[in-house]
Amino acid sequence: MPGSNARFYWDNLVESFGLPALAAGALGLALLFAARRERRLPLLALASFPLVFWLLITDMSMVVKRNLYPVLPVLAAYLGAGLAAWLAVPLPRARRRSPALAAAAVVLLLACLAPPAVQTAREDVGLARPTTREEAAAWIRANLPHGARILKEQYTPELPAADFAVARIRFAGRLSPEELRASGNDYLLLASDAYQRFLRPELTVKEHQRQIGENYRAILYGWRPIAEWVPNDTRLGPILKLYRLEPPAGEGRPAPGR
User: Fold this and answer.
1) Which of 1, 43, 155, 170 could lock onto 191 through a cystine, CB 3.0 to 4.6 A?
2) CA distance linking residue 116 with residue 134, whole number of Å
3) What is the pTM of this model?
4) pLDDT tens readout for residues 56-115
5) pLDDT for 199-224, tens place per residue?
6) Domain spans of the chain?
7) Rounded Cα gap, residues 173 and 244, in angstroms
8) Does residue 1 sit in helix, strand or coil?
9) Is 168:159 a contact under the CB 8 Å cutoff?
10) What are the Cα distances from residue 93, in Å, to 90, 96, 119, 145?
11) What is the per-residue burial (b if ≥16 Cβ within 10 Å, else e) of 173-189?
């Protein structure tokens, strides 16, 4: 994970738009600002929302990619205006039909469009494939005994109540490993969208947040999952980890379904 909120959101902007489009759009906006004095005030006025929103989300303790969504359409419009500004750059008549200039324009266009096009294609493939949640739910239904007691945190898949005794908790790290083992549940299902934020020291500023992080570390680094589902470029969803909750030494547990 990145060391700062601003870096986290910047990396996501690069992933969304591509570095060539960000650079070319920003330079185009600078050209537009310098060349068209009458447009300076509207550009500055319209920039107030993304600037204030950026300052807001970079100062928030809840750091997730979806925080960027409200500002993406505005940034896309700005980048489009910046790219379009390159078309208005005055050129000598002799260079307007230059093959080198035409080739450079094609290269710039491809450089700007290729990263988001590749990302869109990957996401389309991912939407057509089962997500990590769907794969986990299918595996659990096929492999865990009927009536098993499963403690699941948020961002994990929904499981049929007719097949399993499901207990829900927002963050499993609110319980210590000992409390989890003594909870009477047979299995624990974790999701990276829930636990990752507590593994970042710069985001765990309160004592109870640090304790949640320590509990998660004890589980993630000390226990071995019996099954794990990891996303990739064409598989969407969070990392999911399924653990068998062994009861404390000397304590028995009734069989599932009894």
Assistant:
1) 155
2) 26
3) 0.69
4) 888 887 777 888 889 889 888 888 888 888 776 665 555 555 677 667 777 877 888 888
5) 988 777 789 999 999 999 999 999 99
6) 5-88+99-128, 132-244
7) 16
8) coil
9) no
10) 9, 5, 38, 77
11) bbbebeebbebebbbbb
